[in-house]
Amino acid sequence: MKVEIYSDVACPWCYVGKARFERALGAFPGGGDVEVVYRPYQLDPSAPAQAVPMLEYLERRFGAGARAMAGRVVETARGEGLAMDYDRGLAANTLDAHRLMRLAEREHGAETQRAVAEGLFEAHFSEGRDVGDPEVLAEIAGAAGMDRRRVRESLASGEGTAEVKEEIAAAQRLGITAVPTFVFEGRYAVQGAQPTSAFLQALETVARETKPGGGGESDGSCGDGACAV
User: What is the mean pLDDT of residues 33-44?
Assistant: First the structure.
């Protein structure tokens, strides 16, 4: 089974959803055979190239309620064992982070890409690091087993920029308008940071319906928390 996760490192619910999905994957009997690949999406393509304080950025976008909104997310994340620190967080454009994710998947495979994703979320939400800084990205990549020099050269050259933008456009053409969105076998989608039980049910349903004699083609209806794309 293949699961494609449309995600943005700037999205706190993507971090929460990642934790819940991976918990479901660990409980799924066939979890070791599931290929998980991250696909790019940008919540704010116009986010600043130079990092700014996260709360300041959120208040400009969402108004005076931004701090309260962040507080609710922090509490939810804490319940999943994740630390988020908006007070020292930095907001930056995530295009280069997506370019790194693409490079990780293409040259090292899905497992390395997942490790890079975890490093990016931790850096952005927990450590107050600038995920738009090429050196920070190279450090995260190196911790995941990638060659730092290769990463620096790739980021400096602009490699993958056009491809990432096209992947984001393709996601929008597919009808994806929010993240996280989890697409199972290119046929079923689950949107949002659903409870672990919902992700587990989706994995079980897709496994049952896609195995030989397991139910055939979807009729496009929605049920059990999954909808045909």
Answer: 97
The two structure tokens encoding residue 223: 């049920």
Provide mean pLDDT across the span 57-71.
94
Task: For 13-45, give the DSSP string.
Answer: HHHHHHHHHHHHHHHSTTGGG-EEEEEE--S-T
160 contacts 103 by C-beta, under 8 angstroms? yes
Query: Maximum Cα–Cα distance for the chain, whole Å?
Result: 54
Burial of 225 (0-12, 13-18, 19+ CB in 10 A): middle
Model confidence pLDDT, tens digit, residues 104-125: 999 999 999 999 999 999 999 9
Tokens at 122, concatenated: 């931790």
What was the pLDDT predicted at 229? 34
